Amino acid sequence: MHGPQPNTVFPFNGEHHIVFIKNVVSGPNIEVGDYSYYSDMDGAEDFQKKCVSYHFDFIGDRLVIGKFCALATGVEFIMNGASHVMSGLSTYPFNIFQNGWEAEFDPTTYQDGNRGDTVIGNDVWIGNGATIMPGVKVGHGAIIGAKAVVAKDVADYAIVAGNPAREVRRRFSEKAIEALLEIAWWDWPVEKITANLPLIRGGDVDALRAISST
Fold it and tell me: Residue-wise over 60-78: b if at least 16 C-beta within 10 A, else e?
């Protein structure tokens, strides 16, 4: 046995409060890796509706979530569609109400504030109620504290907390982080991951590196 099937919607004994996210999203600009899950006692399968805000196809920004990520209830990804045009004297979105207010509006002005794709690395834990702002890049192995508001990029294996989120510390030494990024266990075949779970769960980077090339 090598863990749950990644194409399973409800991988936790069939209970509906945990879903593998990739199997419940339909947006063309959302990409989620295997085994990344969302936990919510009230409709985890509604991840896209509940957790991805202002994501409009015409803007084109992507939400990318890596493999083996753990997302707690109430996580919110605010996408670039939430931004108002700031190049004029008013930020009020007159054009969206039509009835003549759309006249002479230049839709390309939306791109001025576009911060690009939101990208979450592999093996990331995002705590309850955390908010990820548009265009943020979260590194592999990072931890986002509960209720944090993340408005800038998060380094690999960093722990961040607060509003605005600030780095508390790195989980490992720089040398260990470099080794973990080189090992990239999340890209191993699932059979190899299963066989080496004691090392992945443990704290000996050198031991994990010793078997990474086998």
Answer: ebbbebbbbbbbbbbbebb
